[in-house]
Amino acid sequence: ECYIQNTAREYAKIYAAEAEPLEGFGEVPEIIPIFLVHRPGNNIPYATVEEELVGEFVKYSVRDGKEVNFLRRDSEAGQKCCTFQHWVYEKTNGSLLVTDLQGVGMKLTDVGIATLAKGYKGFKGNCSISFIEQFRALHQCNKYCEMLGLKSLRTTHQKQWKATSMKIKNLPNSSTIKKTVPKKAREPRDFISSEH
């Protein structure tokens, strides 16, 4: 837990150093430090300690991705958290994503990190790779992404889709493929069409 949060905190510091000097960017989200404390005389010898956050606790991104959070999309803190995710994604070439961003205002805690299956530079996160895929598909850039000059993920995603479509179009002609479908399966009701 400490390793994940403090690793994310280091990315947030670099993000802040790039974003804060930009005119009009303003305050940047901060991931608070978390410390592991050894208490040898206690029944539970280890505990984590961090700053107490006072105020309305908001989840700006959700681990399972099933919840739509308007505070994430519509608030300044939420937009800057999304931009931070985009920035980390771009800096690591899509190999790492800081997720589960939550906290009070611009102070964040209890974050997660998703990495590709092989990890990123020897580091493996604590969240599923599906979070990276979901982020790539759902992220909508905002004015803070533009201020940092981040590349639109929609364009990248569309290019990947076009490349896949081209491969599909270049498949051998159906007349050159020997068909072994039983006669009964050729009836129209047995085929399901879908558009991609």
Please tally the β strands and state the result. 8
> What is the global morphology?
globular
The level of helicity is: 25-40%
Q: Output the number of helix runs.
A: 6
Please write the CATH class name.
Answer: Alpha Beta
Beta-strand level of the residues, as a percent range?
Answer: 5-15%
What is the total number of structural domains? 1
Mean pLDDT: 79
The strands making up the biggest β-sheet line up spatially as: 1-7-6-4
Q: What characterizes the major β-sheet? A: 4 strands, mixed
Low-confidence stretches: 156-196
CATH superfamily: MHCK/EF2 kinase
| Rg result | 22 Å
Distance, first to last CA: 40 Å
CATH topology: Protein kinase-like fold
CATH architecture: Alpha-Beta Barrel
Overall SS class: alpha+beta
Order of helices and strands: HEEEEHHEEEEHHH
